[in-house]
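Field log, afternoon session.

UNIT: design team B
ACTIVITY: writing a sequence onto a fixed backbone
BACKBONE:
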């Protein structure tokens, strides 16, 4: 940002309340006004235009706006009396959107009220207020009934803020309990180019997060951009380059394919989220062998150790089967020990059930249903405790959340907006729907076994904040 004084340069002062979204909007306001000769000023003194970019999240915020307006009124009048210059006083943001009429009633000296959806019309509005046939006052708080995504064709590309992208199908691992290798066939990977093309489209349609999917996703081996084979770390680093894409995840992985390059990617790629779903299935080496998992419990522990070395805050998730044929009490206890050693922040657990056509379906030593149920219940109690203990460590913390939906009507989530932390927590927040699609800082106020609740972090900023950010 260059602030060299120019002829006809006008001073713009912006005071911002609220979350990062509003700070971002203030940047946009200053950007669209730049071609009209407005340069940011640190103080409201002698400003030609003052914008109060407001936040509606707490009631006090509205009162703060009115008291700020009360302070600015004599400023505006004095400047007019002494220099004959008009100071444009504008109220923007969520208070403007929600209470535009009240503002003009309570503060009739305000020249312009505009909502968050109308910034692109700001130069036109300012021109109308300052041009030859000066308008006294303007209000533009149009709010499109549809969200911006609704303008886009109903197609695969518009999945919203958190999107899925299938990069690989099928599986060659042949775990003895699993039907996937028979139903989905051999592993097939898409080319890097076709994945990048789709990722760009998703981002153009509002995706901030992409979760690349495959039955055995870390066995990915597609054609690379250079014609050579590319593996998952290659693909993830290519995806990381996409502007506007802030978060990457991949699901579901096999421990055998967690090679050192992929592990290192968790340390190197800032956009790769610190959450990994890596199914173990059992903590007993005897059962892992019977399952044809091609790894031992120690191998799994070693992978986690290496991952935590490059990404200490990595949160682990898994899949576990109890009651696989031949699973003894000791085998089950080995699974419990492994869970205690690793600590999972979330985990899917299943009672084994025979799938026709799989090798395990003809195994002997079946486990009684009541034993399976008892084991599953003990296992789930332990997993829930781990998850809740982990969630409680977030109490009072400030964490970035990508909001991707609003709560369901008639459900307890009604009235909330919902999103995910970097560690994949489900988060509920009382907040404006316009935050959906954005990554916003949240202050965690309540922790529950499987979700967190919080408040949007808000603050007050003057123009200097915007200038520093622009340097
Ligand atoms: N019985 C129980 N759980 C199974 N899974 C797959 N096949 C079976 C089965 N026959 C579980 C595994 C897998 C997850 C997707 O489903 O834990 O990782
Ligand atoms: Fe493949 Fe996973 Fe099924 Fe094993 S459990 S065969 S790795 S899809």
């Amino acid at each position: 940002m260059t602030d060299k004084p120019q002829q006809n340069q006008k001073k713009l002062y912006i005071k911002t309340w609220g979350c990062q979204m509003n700070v971002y909007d203030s940047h946009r306001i200053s950007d669209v006004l730049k071609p009209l000769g407005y340069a940011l000023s640190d103080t409201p003194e002698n400003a030609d235009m003052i914008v109060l970019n407001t936040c509606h999240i707490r009631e006090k915020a509205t009162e703060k706006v009115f008291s700020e307006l009360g302070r600015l009124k004599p400023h505006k009048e004095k400047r007019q009396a002494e220099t004959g210059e008009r100071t444009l006083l504008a109220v923007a943001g969520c208070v403007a959107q929600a209470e535009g009429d009240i503002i003009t009633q309570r503060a009739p000296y305000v020249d312009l009220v505009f909502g968050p959806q109308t910034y692109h019309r700001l130069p036109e509005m300012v021109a109308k207020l300052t041009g030859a046939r000066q308008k006294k006052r303007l209000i533009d708080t149009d709010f499109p009934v549809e969200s911006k995504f609704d303008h886009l064709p109903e197609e695969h590309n518009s999945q919203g803020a958190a999107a899925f992208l299938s990069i690989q199908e099928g599986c060659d691992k042949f775990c003895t309990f699993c039907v996937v290798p028979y139903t989905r066939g051999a592993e097939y990977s898409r080319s890097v180019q076709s994945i990048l093309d789709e990722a760009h489209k998703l981002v153009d349609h509002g995706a901030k997060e992409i979760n690349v999917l495959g039955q055995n996703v870390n066995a990915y081996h597609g054609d690379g951009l250079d014609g050579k084979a590319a593996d998952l770390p290659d693909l993830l680093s290519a995806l990381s380059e996409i502007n506007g894409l802030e978060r990457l995840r991949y699901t579901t992985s096999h421990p055998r394919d967690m090679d050192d390059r992929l592990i290192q990617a968790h340390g190197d790629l800032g956009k790769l989220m610190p959450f990994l779903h890596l199914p173990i299935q059992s903590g007993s080496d005897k059962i892992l062998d019977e399952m044809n998992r091609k790894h031992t419990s120690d191998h799994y522990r070693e992978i986690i150790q290496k991952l935590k070395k490059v990404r200490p805050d990595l949160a682990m998730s898994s899949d576990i089967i109890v009651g696989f044929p031949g699973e003894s009490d000791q085998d089950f206890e080995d699974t419990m020990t492994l869970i205690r050693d690793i600590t999972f922040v979330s985990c899917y657990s299943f009672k084994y059930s025979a799938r026709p056509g799989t090798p395990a379906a003809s195994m002997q030593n079946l486990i009684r249903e009541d034993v399976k149920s008892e084991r599953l219940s003990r296992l789930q109690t332990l997993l829930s405790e781990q998850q809740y203990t982990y969630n409680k460590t977030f109490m009072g913390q400030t964490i970035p959340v990508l909001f991707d939906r609003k709560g369901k009507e008639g459900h307890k989530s009604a009235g909330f907006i919902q999103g995910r932390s970097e560690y994949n927590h489900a988060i509920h927040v009382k907040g404006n729907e316009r935050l959906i699609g954005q990554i916003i800082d949240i202050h965690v106020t309540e922790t529950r076994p499987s979700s967190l609740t919080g408040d949007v972090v808000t603050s007050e900023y003057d123009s200097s904040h915007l200038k520093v950010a622009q340097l």
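LOG NOTE: Residues 59-83 form the longest helix (25 residues).
NEXT ACTIVITY: expression trials, pending approval
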